[in-house]
Design brief:
Elements lengths: L1 E4 L4 E12 L2 E15 L3 E10 L4 E13 L2 E11 H4 L19 E12 L3 E12 L3 E13 L5 E11 L6 E10 L10 E15 L2 E15 L4 E12 L2 E13 L6
Antiparallel strand pairs: 1-2, 2-3, 3-4, 4-5, 5-6, 6-7, 7-8, 8-9, 9-10, 10-11, 11-12, 12-13, 13-14, 14-15
Length: 258
Amino acid sequence: RVGLKLQDYGALGFSYKNIDNDSNTAEQMGGIDLSLILPGGIGLYGTSVRNLETDGWAEHSWELQIDHGAWRLRPLVSIFEYSDYFGTGANAVNPFRYLAATGEKVTSYGADLTHRGEAWTFGGKVRSYSYDQAGDNRYYAALVSWHGADNTEVGGEFGIMDGDTDRTGYVQGRVYAYIDGLRGQYWLDFISADLLYVGYDRSIYGEDTSLFASFGIGRSFFDGRVILKASGDYSQDPYFDEDLRAMLTLTYLYDSGQ
């Protein structure tokens, strides 16, 4: 990726990815991304990706961010072409490559509206998903979050997906927390947690719920240049009886900004 800073107005980026397998092209993508600061508290952000193997646009994802006082409106639109998004070369290892043959196209559009106070943020989101073959879905959600010192944030979301069929309808609830600024009180610097529950209108493979839980802890060293984080995830859904995973990551920042 090559980026170009547009003075104080944003940035423009160009990206290219090529994957070869046994000297044959497995995947070849090109993309452009833009962040543009406009007058009146308006920002334009987005990316478009073209599949150079299939010679078609794989993805367009663009949004406006409109700020007015404590209010923020974020209209957005995304378009995915399955034949170009999942379409890869013959030697590519892609478990979702079969989706390219479906010829499906998904268009998503909607908006978020939030109001942020000194500590609390309230808002809502609306999404419409239009499938060429699978029908249409609409998602409505209410959001709330509390912001503390440093980067501390606790929040939740409750949403309803209204599908054309009972196989695509569900209710969803999520709560999350990120506790920051613990250095000096405990050995840790931060703690993160996330819990997601989904209840389906119609059972899938005999199951009508999904559950995902995540917990992480972390600490930084050498004035924030090195960050060590340990996390664990648990999930249970109609496709997997149980899935448990753990991850340990070490991040080094070449420039801490100090």
